[in-house]
Design a protein that fits this description.
The chain has 2 domains: 237 residues, Aldehyde Dehydrogenase, Chain A, domain 1 (3-Layer(aba) Sandwich), CATH 3.40.605.10; 146 residues, Aldehyde Dehydrogenase, Chain A, domain 2 (3-Layer(aba) Sandwich), CATH 3.40.309. 39% of the residues lie in helices and 19% in strands. Helix 2 crosses helix 7. The longest helix has 21 residues.
Length: 438
């Protein structure tokens, strides 16, 4: 047992501090990373069927462990409430039997997906007879640093194992008990399927030095994936010496065009904001064309449901319950029952607003005008762009990808929901028959 695995100490406010004063956190993280790299080499040799079967056993273990997971989660939720976490954050943190079942089902869905490892991306024959082939391979050891959502523990582990990668997980302190219970169950099932124990490791300390050690582990950790708030992602991007696949804010827009069907627009806007306010696909700004025929009917269901609307001058004129927005509202990911609303003069104005304020996550247009939709889909530079659909569909499962490790908002390597393919790279295989270069 290394220093990081000693018994946790519980503070008065319910937080967990489990790092002994003499613990060498950086050294322990390096040891975990080395063990993960060794396990990944074993995992990569397992067949696709063996990795899939192990995940099915992991899903079964999660279901068996549901009472223990719920007990651990109740302690986390109580601690979060005492610490003053917002309602949206508590919703992200909370588990119930249906969410645990969904977690287990997501692991099974990942197991059933086509394995990208070994897929031939392309192949060409050169004039000299050599064959050049690009083939998908695992990235290696992936470090995932995340906050709030305990389901990330299972999703990230499943995606990494299925794609032949090892995972080093570091969850947030608010979900520490839940993460440990989920990891313990999943590890039991994976081990029964022959997956090395070090292929999926949970960093067992909440000391922030562990994050710094992961970010500095160039040559040991092959990629870092941060999932959390702006401060976490900013720190990772600023400090990492390891390639980062970033998941940034979901400042998502829905533009209701003048040609939108009013009933469709009303249903989409309500769902995009209020289905679950704490998910990254939640709409944060509603743009309404000045010529849309029923702006009050569009906003009334949101107001009636208790959603706070903050608008520009023309939006405030629609209903007295709308309060004036300030400059920072247009750049805020609320993750709460709060929505910014602006009235815009047509598609050009909507595109300009989105270009100025969007985070590159998910933006949608509601319209029956196919030409307007085509322009919106072509010109909005976000990872996900939608027509006549709720932004709440910004989810790997809804894309048919199974679980996801995050929504990547950058432009390199992977973009949008990052699932199995996004956790692979490629290598070139050159097949010759004795050729030499003159």
């Amino acid at each position: 047992m290394n220093a990081l695995t000693s018994a946790p100490l519980h503070t008065e406010n319910g937080a967990v501090d489990d790092t002994p004063a003499d613990s060498n956190v950086a050294g322990d993280v390096i040891n975990l990373a080395r063990a993960g790299r060794a396990a990944q080499r074993v995992l990569a040799k397992m067949s696709s069927g063996e990795r899939a079967a192990a995940l099915v056993l992991g899903a079964a273990a999660l279901r068996r462990a549901a009472p223990a997971i719920l007990e651990a989660n109740a302690l986390d939720v109580d601690g979060g409430a005492a610490a003053g976490l917002s309602g949206a954050m508590l919703d992200r943190l909370s588990l119930d039997p249906s969410r645990i079942e969904a977690m287990a089902a997501a692991v099974e869905q990942v197991a059933a997906l086509d394995d990208p490892v070994g897929q031939i991306i392309d192949e060409t024959a050169r004039p000299n007879g050599m064959v050049m082939r690009r083939v998908r391979v695992p990235i290696g050891l992936i470090g995932i640093i995340y906050e709030s959502r305990p389901n990330v523990t299972a999703d990230a582990a499943a995606l990494c194992v299925r794609s032949g990668n090892a995972a080093l997980l570091r969850g947030g302190s608010e979900a520490v008990r839940s993460n440990r219970a989920i990891h313990a169950a999943l590890a039991e099932g994976l081990a029964a399927g022959g997956v090395p124990a070090a292929a999926v490791q949970l960093v067992p300390t909440q000391d922030r030095a562990a994050v710094g050690a992961m970010l500095a582990a160039s040559g040991l950790i092959d990629m870092i994936v941060p999932r959390g708030g702006k401060n976490l992602v900013a720190r990772v991007q600023a400090d990492a010496r390891v390639p980062v696949l970033a998941h940034l804010d979901g400042i998502n827009h829905t533009y209701v065009d003048r040609a939108a069907d009013p009933q469709m627009a009303k249903a989409i806007a309500f769902n995009a904001k209020l289905r679950r306010t704490g998910v990254c696909g939640s709409m944060e700004t509603l743009l309404i064309d000045a010529l849309f025929p029923d702006p009050h009917g569009l906003l009334e269901p949101l107001l009636a449901a208790g959603c706070e609307l903050r608008g520009d001058a023309r939006a405030c004129a629609i209903d007295p319950r709308i309060t004036p927005a300030d400059a920072k509202d247009w750049d805020t990911e609320y993750l709460d029952s709060i929505l910014s609303v602006a009235v815009v003069d047509g598609l050009d104005a909507a595109l300009a607003h989105i270009a100025r304020h969007a985070s590159g996550h998910t933006d949608a247009i509601v319209t029956a005008d196919q030409a307007a939709a085509a322009r919106f889909l072509a010109e909005v530079d976000s990872a996900i762009v939608m027509h006549n659909a709720s932004s709440q569909f910004a989810d790997g499962g809804e894309f048919g990808l199974g679980a996801e490790i995050g929504i990547a908002t950058g432009r390199l390597h992977a973009r949008g929901p990052v699932a199995l393919e996004g956790l692979t790279t490629y290598k070139w295989l050159v097949l010759g028959s004795g050729q030499i270069r003159l």
